[in-house]
Amino acid sequence: MKLIHLVSGIAPALVVAGGAVLAQSKGPSAVECSVSALQAKAPAGTTVTSASLVAPNGANPQFCQVDGHVATPGNEVNFRLGLPERWNGKYYFVGVGGTGGTIGRLDAGLARGYASASTDTGHVSSDATWTADAAKRIDYGYRGTHVTAAAGKALTASFYGSTPQHAYFQGCSNGGRQAFMELQRFPDDFDGVIAGDPATGVPMQVGRALVFQKLLANPDSYVPIEKVEMLSKATVAACDARDGLKDGLVSDPRLCHFKPETLKCTGADAPNCLTAPQLAVVQQFYDGVKLPSGEVYAYPFPFGHEGDATGWQAWTIGRTPPPRDANGSLEFAQNRPSGFVLSGETFKMIASATSDPNVSWRTFNFGRDLPRLKEITTILSPLDTDLRPYKNRGGKVLMYHGWADPAISAYGTIDYYERMTKIAGGQKAADEFARLYLVPGMHHCAGGPGPNQFDMLTALENWVEKGAAPQSIIATHATADHVDRTRPICPYPQVAKYVGTGSIDEAANFKCQAP
Ligand SMILES: [Ca+2]
What we know:
The protein is of the alpha/beta class.
């Protein structure tokens, strides 16, 4: 008999008194929540280091929290697994941001009854030297997620005495990169995958480095917050109405033909213009990087919504101007923008992988150094557009990307989706297993003036479990927890069009249709 049938409807006999949990209970599980019991059922190479019951808290049910690690050649990869007392029969793995090092929060999965897991991808954030370790680079790149996903799934099956009916992965940013790696390298791991604002690894970090080379060359080239706000107002003013609705949102930056050089100072530097070196920084950002063949290497960025705390401030220019270093150039010292930190980490990996300690973001020469990036790109960058193995095993994938993401360009995800579609056999074939949603006015995975909160997991579940392919998904924008705008986001290439009557802040007055 499958234990899942026992779980539903029967309150397990777990004793909770005054918030404290009595440590011993079998509840609905086949084995108890203890290191010895779980270790006895663990797959080879998996070590359980702790297991304890955690009391219900907020939306989280009581669950058995299992910590452990999985051995890989030359390394150990940490994971955490949460096994809720009322299990929904399914497995959910959540990705992590940045360069990993911290295990993701399991709350979202636990609250829905999932056996929920995550990994730090093979190193801890306090380890400043992990980038120099080849095994850790591979585990961060792709292997760590795969081995811990497998271990968590096996422990889930042992704990409940029943194999999970479905397995899902969800991640944004680096989590989107993990998602893409799973799709491309380990198509059997998950039945459904949500890949948000997926990082492409080396190309985007190189593209970013070339922006920082110009931005931080000297104090004259630095673009301060006030000028980014000015730029943001200019792009929105030029682009807003191009999508057919003047609503303060640039909903389709592809239709926008803004020319940054129109902001160039004609005389002395002033608050409402960009100096020549500042303009060079801005153009580097929007232009991206091309190979000698003319093919895109690092994607250009869309125009629109560069301002605000979650815009360029967070990723590129920082909250405060960086001080000058001994050479006269600028160097972020504190409150370093996230893009700077991640580019630095990636260049440490590149330096180690090429055995050249002199490689750095500041001295990187694209024409000269590109050939040296091949090996590390294979490890870090999920660029394989052939998802047929994943499609053929019945997997489904939802991709999304914020149009105003200042960290990773939405154009890269669109290009990936289009290449993937071609290899899959065309739009009809791609529609059988993949969707891409572009989110107007959303910054990196969240934030920005556009509706930026939505539930992709329910749409994915309905597709995988009921065969109901997702159509539009309602996104909301909130200010101080108050929802002030809703809008459908649409399966690419459709866009949300205003029907012509009713509030432009209500989703009901928009329809997804061909652009
Ligand atoms: Ca608009």
